[in-house]
Amino acid sequence: MNVTMQLIILASAIIINCQDNTFKSMNDDNTNSGDPQHLSNPYYSRTDTTILDLPDSVWKKVLPEDVFRIARNKETEAAFTGKYWKSTGTGTYYCAACGNALFRSDAWFASTCGWPSFFETTRKNSVKYKTDYTYGMIRTEVLCGRCGAHLGHIFDDGPPPTGKRYCMNSIVLDFIPDNNKTKKLKN
């Protein structure tokens, strides 16, 4: 191999490495650092609000199986089993599928339903709503406003100031504490 070809290969390797490191540093604030759940998900970002319209076949490749079942197949985790149903702390709850900001901890309230409950979203378009006729009931389904993941349902029996209860599945939520101090309520 001649010197010119060697220099071209070396320059290409340096450019590729720089681009790779730039991409990683740009995404450091967007993903849960060190969380393997999001390392294989290129759509997860806590800052990007671009609407994602991806088929379930793509989500199946990038989401853990338990998150996929609830987010895309609209299943429900068992009551009183989710990691956030009794959690408190100061921070933000994000969509576990795409990283969209959904709820602030100051909108969380203790509910006896067995799932984490909130009385308002972080912003108006954080979620979207769909009428749900499953199981012989008429309910309002709550979907992520960015990726359309099933999050849970909303009911009109919440506390002031909204009177709403966003009843969410913990498995499709990521909680990022403001100060890395999360506490659990005692039983």
Describe this structure in words.
This protein has 187 residues and is α+β, with helices and mostly antiparallel strands. Strands 3-4-8-7-6-5 form a six-stranded antiparallel beta sheet, with no helix packed on it. The protein has a three-stranded antiparallel beta sheet with strand order 2-1-9, with no helix packed on it. The relative contact order is 0.17. The protein folds into two domains: 30 residues; 149 residues, Metal Binding Protein, Guanine Nucleotide Exchange Factor, Chain A.
Order of helices and strands: HHHHEEEEEEEEE
> What name is given to the CATH topology of the largest domain?
Metal Binding Protein, Guanine Nucleotide Exchange Factor, Chain A
Order of strands, widest sheet: 3-4-8-7-6-5
Q: Mean pLDDT, nearest integer?
A: 83
CATH homologous superfamily label of the largest domain: Peptide methionine sulfoxide reductase
> How can the largest sheet be summarized?
6 strands, antiparallel
Shape: globular
The domain tally reads 2
What's the number of helices?
4
Distance between the termini: 71 Å
Helix content: 10-25%
Number of strands: 9
Q: Quickly give the structural class.
A: alpha+beta
| Rg, Cα atoms, Å | 20 Å
- The first-level CATH class of the largest domain is given as Mainly Beta
Tell me the strand percentage band. Answer: 25-35%
**Spans with pLDDT under 50 lasting ≥5 residues?**
5-34, 181-187
CATH architecture label name of the largest domain: Beta Complex
What characteristics describe this protein?
187 residues, alpha+beta, Metal Binding Protein, Guanine Nucleotide Exchange Factor, Chain A, six-stranded antiparallel beta sheet, three-stranded antiparallel beta sheet, 9 strands, 23% helix
